[in-house]
Amino acid sequence: MSYMAEKKRDPYFDNAKFLLMILVVFGHMMQPFIENEQWNHDLYYTIFAFHMPAFIFISGFFAKSFDPQKKAPVATNFQKFIVPYIFFQWLYSLFNRLSGAEEHFTFQLDVPNWSLWFLISSFFWQISLYFFRRIRPTAGITISILISLLVGYTPFIGRELTLQRTAVFLPFFIIGYYLPKGFFDWFKNFKYKKLFAVGLSLFML
Fold this sequence. Notes:
This protein has one domain. It has helices spanning 2-7, 11-30, 38-61, 73-99, 117-132, 137-150, 163-178, 183-188, 193-204. It has nine helices and no strands. The chain is mainly alpha-helical.
């Protein structure tokens, strides 16, 4: 019974992740039209300003089970993220060749196609917990922010293995990881949360 209780899903997070995935698809659908109207442009960049940080933040929150003493995190995360990445990267390459987008079949692993960057970044974020789990949250968050800022001034870090995006979004993952487990229970019962949501929306505008 205790095992089943641990595996019970939380509809709060399921709905949040579903909404964020819808926004990802909606944002990509809007991209061809952002130059037509100003409101299209503003809405597109408003969505992209928070939907991936929020998704990564939730991913970090659920990474609390990371424990190198209980299992092999590198092998587990390699199977979870890198193996699917290799398969879908190959599939994208095949589609591009068959559709005529590419004259020749070109399969490369260093630069991800479309949204596959998230799989590689997730692997690196998980592995980074070998380090961040050993230090205090204040130090860990500070270090992650410094890394995200410094990567913009490092010319040899770019799209290869999506290292630039991994570093830029690292603070959101680390903040989610350090956040206490009871935070969302507190937030659900926070009586001013609707006012907070309205204020955040106005700030984004």
